[in-house]
């Protein structure tokens, strides 16, 4: 009988611990999807949107607290975000400041990528500075010549995009890209870094934009929002 009581208590304790873990996990999930950096510390906040985020309601984004949006526009020499034209028109209609993002492919010549970007993104002085997403590593191209010439090619691309936009670009640098290429410390452009919940410090100098979370749920999008803040 004593053994049976001990076994029953073990099961009860195990069930209680499981319940506590489930409640804690649920609370942690709720905190993650509701978390935004404090407005008092970061007054300017916005969203980063693209095709994968589905149809966005830009008027409703304002209710979530978006002061601006960045839109995925193009990638490589021919890739184009299927939602860009619609998102661009909707952001303009909502009078929400907006900018375009190009995902840079180190395996593709700079001129071809610049041609793709300037074809899809209009020349508009009212737009925010264009951003270049640096995520794909040159080592993925399998060509040491490409790796050696990365900075030169990237500079060519930057110059052509800046000539089109009439303003300096922002470099959206991933942690992996910076670790391998060190672009953030060598190229004098504003930086856009990323890290959930904690300020990023991997570029060796201050950031201008920070993707603070990719989990925020709010009005304006059916899925999780990539939420971006501006350095005050």
What is the percent of helical residues?
Answer: 40-55%
Per CATH, the superfamily of the largest domain is: Glycosidases
User: What is the H/E order?
Assistant: HEHEEHEHEHHEHHEEE
Q: What is the fold named in CATH at topology level of the largest domain?
A: TIM Barrel
Could you walk me through the main structural features you see in this protein, from its secondary elements to its overall organization?
This protein is α/β, with parallel strands linked by helices and 232 residues long. 40% of the residues lie in helices and 21% in strands. The chain has helices spanning 2-34, 58-64, 84-93, 110-120, 144-148, 150-165, 175-181, 183-186; strands at 45-49, 68-75, 79-80, 98-103, 131-134, 170-173, 190-194, 209-216, 225-230. An 8-stranded mixed barrel has the order 1-2-4-5-6-7-8-9, surrounded by 4 helices. Helix 2 links the parallel strand 1 (45-49) and strand 2 (68-75). The protein is globular and about 60 Å long.
What's the short version?
The chain has helices spanning 2-34, 58-64, 84-93, 110-120, 144-148, 150-165, 175-181, 183-186, and strands spanning 45-49, 68-75, 79-80, 98-103, 131-134, 170-173, 190-194, 209-216, 225-230.
Secondary structure elements and their pairing?
Elements: H1 2-34, E1 45-49, H2 58-64, E2 68-75, E3 79-80, H3 84-93, E4 98-103, H4 110-120, E5 131-134, H5 144-148, H6 150-165, E6 170-173, H7 175-181, H8 183-186, E7 190-194, E8 209-216, E9 225-230
Parallel strand pairs: 1-2, 2-4, 4-5, 5-6, 6-7, 7-8
Antiparallel strand pairs: 1-9, 2-3, 8-9
Helix pairs in contact: 4-6
